[in-house]
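Duplicate of #3305? Posting structure anyway:
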């Protein structure tokens, strides 16, 4: 009955609804009355409204509704209520509340309607849809680590969520972008920004403007001429900051998504933007990043498109998960630091009654003045109270806060790191969960890329960790990763009958008494007694005497095997097969390198004592004679539960089982698409986890200074002269602004003391076991290693031999990592220091410097226990750094000569300049007559010119909405040809414009319509679908008319579109290295002709996309490219499971093109033989088969839509 329906709907509304902006629904005082609160988008406050249904007998079919508000609501809100009440006739309570939220969502404090929500092109047809929630995934969903947004049907599918392209709408966009540009950023856009449709906005700035040191740029693998780019994707049209504040966090993610990256231009191409928001599996993403890293290491100077930075993944999560909420807190008066702290403190809690005005959240953050104004700018704080704020500008300033200052924040929880910990690379805080997520989510550096690009640096890092663990100096451990390692009693280098002082290489801290470790039995929760079995070394099989016992392990687990005939040798094996238990198959054993015959530990190294267990005599005839009695230990001990002594032991024992870095590099080069985790029979998960931790936790910048690996290809000119026989590394530590602080100290001290030589170089020596912590924590004097007879500070010496005396303390031959190529026996650093020895703690006999900002590391020299055959012969550098004659450090034989490149570029003497007509040039360093182009300090002359399309948005005050788009023209290179009249007014016309070389062989408009399956408009066409298709078609032509065709890769001839429900599209200009492109060229085919057919339910249902010609090689015949044997596209995106109503056709075309270009699992190839078209019938059947195979849902009414209303027997 009507009254019961009303009561049921009202109870549902009172119980809680997920309608954005609606809250606190309550039963009213009169029959048929209820009240609710609506959020005001302008100020964040809520307004109370009441609704009255006079005749409940007509509910919910033909009843009328009356809406009332209090006297203090804005006038425009009160004036809008009668119209809303008229539109609410016959609507249920839920529909009424959705209507109110939608209509009042964009009303500001003055009552003017904002630009983001008043799209009325679709009428009210969608408001009468059924109540089923739309659950399709968005084409550009958030990353897997971000929870999926929950939203009502009106948010997910209603076309009215698009913005109306009014003059006010365009004016707001222009104002927001001009705010960003006036601050110093470059702005750009892609897509239909001014038409209120899906689009991309880009904000960028050159790396050179961020005040990042050269050392940090090297560590972060970025160049000063590159751009840091923020892409903001608006799937439903541009949204202002006020609009997003009116949404909850989940709904806001529906309307905006962000990505951070590096590019050689100020904005990416459309294809790069789409690719940036395409969700990949973890393996695919790793392959993409590895490919980017490899190309960068091979040719760092080559032009590169948009790519992920070293910190893109955590920053993307931070932006999409937290930014909108943090902005809301900012508008409550909190600074960025307070908003972030408040978010962290109240994560997962109810904040309704929390103390948001606590002083700790309102305290202004103290930011180093060394940062440029561009980095420290705060648009929210600086904007006037009556000034609108720009979301792109706020977002970019937030990005700079976490990019430039990335080492100050944890990469997982984004909390502030300890103030006393400085590093040049970002890392995680000391929470075990953060380390676990950092490693498991892949936020750390790619160890595969590091091994390929800098093998000696990886060798050095492992060697430092091995020596530190071996000598008892390791204090930090990879806890929280749940590494499963062998129990302590299984590891080969433990002698339970000796004291800790006999432990090879063990060295306690200064003035610390020796402490014996606990017995293994007390340090582990896992069983420490070995299991017994018999082992065949030739067949790699174990056999157990009792087949009735359960198998003690599973396939894939690792064990240690010791045979009775050689009990001191450990065989680390992976379980391969347990199906035929009591016989178990294992992999080829991994023997620790320290126990191999060719490994020398020195004369004092003693083999471990091992007592072989006794075995019962095997029954005759039951076990073959080639099975030898043996014991095994499983990798079943949780590393986190071990005592520190045994943690160190587990680390160096597992590192002992790793292949050499050269072997790992060779494996990765041979398996280009694989990581080390695929080498399952050689590297255990525990050893791989420790290796990842070693590389990821390195927070210093270490670059080998040899021509073979130097990424700049300088062929040894940066090598320091006078250190023959040493492997040299450029070495930088400290925060990214450490170099700037050092330069400031140098200049201020030099000016104060009138110094001719502002700095000098000196040696710093430290035992090998300390370097693992030094490269993570930097140089400090928090711990005492050798006593401090001359005061507290960092000790230096001008004499090499003096500092080397401290390097060998505690070293034994067993301290070197056995598989190492370097065989590191000692390491010594050369630091640059402010030349004010009278202000040191001590200057004789040692220089003790307490001012850490006065010290900057420059070089690290490594000496091996074996001669390094790869050491480059030293040559005197052509340009040298002039040193203080009274403070020149001595090397092993004579005074050293330091190249000019040892100091930062800003402190080098001005190069010899040669006047030319346009640019400065300087000597390359090898030959004064060999000049190279020099952009002085990377000023704005090095900036990429802003494109005409982006200047037009900023300069044209009243950009009209064109009703009739011009026909798309053949491609003319952007910015290369004659300037248009508008562009001429800005920059002047080009006088010497020359025709550019064609970028493609595709000829637009050459397709013969008489040979295409053209359809008449369908009888079942609906007004909403037609309007949406017209809007999408118009947007697509606008993109086609403004973007270079060879970059788009698709083309639509407007003359061929006579039916809005059938579009003919050509894909062209594929990468010429693709097999598909080669096939097309050999057959003289210029494009792939495709057809898109739309149904009456569009955009709620996906279009039918198929190839017309040419025919592709089918999957069964070895083809790929996601094209079925019938020509239909095999993509989840084009089914009900993957389609979203907010997906744009432009993104569909780009995704289809990417699918055809994919080489995984097989590349697309063309069918041999005579040319013939696909028929629509075979495409329909192939599409249905594909859906059934993958479990995808075929859209309702698919066949009617696919056949265009014609009988299914049609040849087309």
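Output from current build:
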């Amino acid at each position: 009955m009507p009254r019961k329906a009303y009561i049921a709907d009202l109870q549902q509304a009172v119980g809680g609804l997920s309608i954005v902006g609606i809250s606190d629904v309550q039963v009213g005082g009169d029959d048929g009355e209820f009240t609710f609160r609506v959020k005001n988008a302008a100020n964040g406050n809520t307004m109370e409204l009441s609704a009255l249904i006079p005749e409940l007998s007509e509910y919910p079919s033909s009843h009328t509704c009356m809406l009332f508000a209090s006297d203090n609501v804005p006038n425009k809100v009160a004036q809008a209520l009668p119209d809303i009440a008229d539109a609410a006739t016959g609507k249920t309570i839920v529909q009424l509340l959705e209507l109110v939220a939608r209509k009042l969502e964009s009303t500001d404090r003055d009552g003017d309607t904002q630009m983001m929500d008043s799209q009325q092109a679709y009428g009210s047809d969608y408001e009468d849809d059924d109540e089923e929630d739309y659950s399709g995934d968005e084409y550009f969903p958030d990353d897997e680590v971000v929870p999926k947004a929950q939203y009502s049907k009106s948010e997910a599918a209603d076309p009215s969520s698009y913005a109306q392209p009014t003059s006010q709408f365009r004016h707001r966009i222009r104002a927001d972008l001009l705010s960003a540009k006036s601050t110093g950023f470059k702005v750009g856009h892609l897509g239909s920004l001014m038409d209120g449709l899906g689009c991309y906005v880009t904000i960028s700035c050159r790396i050179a403007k961020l005040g990042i040191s050269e050392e940090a740029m090297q560590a972060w693998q970025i160049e000063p001429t590159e751009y840091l780019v923020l892409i903001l994707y608006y799937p439903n049209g541009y949204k202002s900051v006020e609009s997003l504040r009116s949404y909850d966090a989940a709904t806001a993610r529906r309307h905006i998504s962000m990505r951070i990256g590096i590019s050689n231009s100020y904005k990416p191409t459309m294809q790069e933007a789409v690719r940036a928001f395409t969700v990949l599996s973890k393996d695919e993403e790793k392959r993409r990043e590895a490919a980017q890293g490899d190309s960068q290491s091979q040719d760092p100077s080559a032009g590169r498109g948009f790519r992920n930075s070293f910190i893109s993944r955590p920053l993307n999560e931070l932006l999409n998960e937290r930014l909108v909420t943090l902005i809301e807190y900012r508008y409550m008066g909190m600074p960025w630091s307070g908003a972030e702290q408040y978010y962290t403190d109240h994560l997962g809690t109810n904040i309704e009654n929390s103390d948001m005005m606590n002083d700790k959240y309102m305290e202004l953050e103290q930011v180093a003045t060394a940062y440029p104004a561009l980095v420290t700018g705060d648009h929210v704080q600086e904007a006037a109270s009556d000034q609108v704020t720009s979301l792109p500008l706020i977002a970019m300033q937030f990005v700079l806060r976490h990019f430039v200052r990335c080492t100050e924040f944890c990469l997982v929880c984004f909390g502030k790191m300890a103030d006393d910990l400085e590093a040049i690379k970002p890392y995680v805080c000391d929470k075990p969960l953060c380390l676990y997520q950092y490693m498991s989510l892949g936020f750390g550096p790619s160890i595969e890329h590091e091994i390929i690009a800098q093998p000696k640096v990886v060798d050095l890092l492992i060697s430092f960790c091995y020596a530190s663990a071996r000598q008892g100096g390791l204090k930090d451990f990879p806890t929280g990763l749940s590494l499963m390692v062998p129990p302590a009693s299984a590891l080969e280098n433990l002698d339970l009958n000796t004291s800790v002082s006999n432990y090879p290489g063990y060295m306690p801290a200064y003035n610390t008494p020796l402490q014996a470790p606990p017995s293994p039995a007390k340090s582990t929760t896992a069983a420490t007694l070995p299991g017994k079995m018999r082992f065949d070394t030739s067949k790699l099989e174990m056999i157990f005497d009792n087949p009735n016992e359960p198998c003690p392990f599973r396939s894939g687990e690792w064990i240690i095997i010791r045979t009775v005939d050689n009990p001191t040798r450990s065989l680390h094996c992976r379980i391969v097969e347990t199906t035929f238990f009591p016989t178990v198959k294992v992999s080829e054993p991994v023997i620790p390198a320290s126990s191999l015959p060719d490994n020398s530990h020195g004369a004092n190294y003693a083999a471990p004592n091992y007592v072989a267990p006794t075995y019962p005599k095997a029954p005759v005839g039951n076990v073959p004679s080639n099975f030898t009695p043996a014991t095994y230990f499983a990798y079943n001990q949780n590393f986190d539960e071990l005592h520190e002594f045994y943690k160190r032991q587990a680390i160096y024992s597992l590192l002992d089982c790793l292949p050499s870095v050269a072997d790992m590099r060779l494996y990765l080069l041979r398996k280009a698409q694989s990581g080390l985790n695929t080498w399952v029979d050689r590297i255990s998960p525990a050893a791989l986890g420790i290796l990842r931790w070693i590389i990821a936790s390195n927070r210093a910048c270490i670059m080998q200074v040899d021509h073979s690996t130097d990424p700049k290809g300088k062929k040894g000119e940066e090598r320091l002269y006078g250190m023959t026989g040493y492997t040299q590394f450029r070495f930088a530590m400290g925060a990214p602004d450490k170099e700037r602080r050092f330069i400031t100290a140098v200049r201020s001290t030099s000016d104060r003391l009138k110094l001719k030589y502002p700095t000098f170089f000196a040696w710093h020596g430290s035992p090998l076991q300390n370097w693992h912590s030094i490269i993570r924590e930097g140089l400090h004097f928090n711990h005492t290693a050798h006593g401090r007879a001359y005061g507290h500070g960092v000790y230096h010496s001008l004499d090499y031999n003096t500092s080397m005396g401290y390097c060998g303390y505690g070293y034994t031959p067993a301290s070197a990592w056995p598989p190492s190529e370097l065989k590191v026996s000692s390491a010594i650093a050369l630091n640059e220091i402010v030349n004010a020895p009278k202000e040191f703690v001590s200057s004789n006999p040692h220089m003790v410097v307490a001012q850490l900002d006065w010290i900057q590391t420059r070089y690290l020299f490594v000496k091996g226990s074996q001669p390094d055959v790869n050491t480059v012969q030293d040559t005197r550098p052509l340009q040298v750094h002039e040193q203080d004659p009274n403070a020149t450090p001595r090397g092993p034989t004579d005074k050293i000569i330091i190249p000019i490149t040892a100091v930062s570029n800003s402190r080098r003497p001005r190069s010899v300049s040669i006047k030319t007509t346009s640019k400065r040039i300087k000597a390359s360093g090898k030959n004064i007559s060999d000049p190279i182009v020099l952009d002085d300090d990377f000023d704005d002359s090095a900036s990429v010119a802003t494109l005409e399309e982006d200047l037009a948005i900023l300069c044209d005050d009243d950009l009209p909405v064109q009703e009739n788009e011009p026909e798309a023209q053949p491609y003319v290179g952007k910015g290369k040809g004659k300037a248009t009249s508008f562009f001429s007014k800005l920059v002047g016309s080009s006088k010497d414009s020359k025709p550019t070389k064609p970028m493609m062989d595709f000829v637009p408009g050459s397709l013969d319509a008489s040979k295409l399956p053209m359809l008449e408009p369908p009888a079942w066409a609906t007004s909403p679908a037609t309007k949406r298709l017209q809007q999408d078609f118009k947007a697509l032509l606008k993109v086609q008319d403004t973007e270079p065709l060879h970059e788009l890769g698709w083309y639509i001839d407007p003359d061929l579109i006579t039916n809005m429900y059938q579009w003919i599209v050509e894909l062209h200009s594929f990468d010429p290295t693709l097999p598909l492109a080669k096939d097309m060229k050999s057959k003289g085919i210029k494009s792939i002709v495709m057809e898109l057919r739309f149904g009456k339910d569009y955009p709620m249902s996906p279009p039918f996309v198929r190839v017309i010609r040419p025919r592709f090689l089918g999957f069964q015949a070895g083809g790929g490219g996601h094209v079925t044997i019938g020509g239909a596209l095999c993509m989840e995106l084009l089914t009900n499971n993957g389609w979203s109503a907010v997906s744009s056709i432009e993104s569909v075309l780009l995704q289809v093109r990417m699918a055809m270009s994919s080489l995984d699992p097989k590349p697309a190839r063309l069918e041999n033989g005579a040319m013939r078209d696909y028929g629509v019938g075979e495409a329909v059947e192939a599409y249905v088969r594909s859906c059934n195979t993958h479990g995808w849902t075929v859209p309702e009414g698919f066949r009617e839509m696919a056949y265009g209303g014609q009988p299914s027997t049609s040849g087309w």
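Confirmed duplicate; merging threads. The first strand starts at residue 22 and ends at 27. Residues 2-105 form a domain with the Ubiquitin Conjugating Enzyme fold (CATH 3.10.110).
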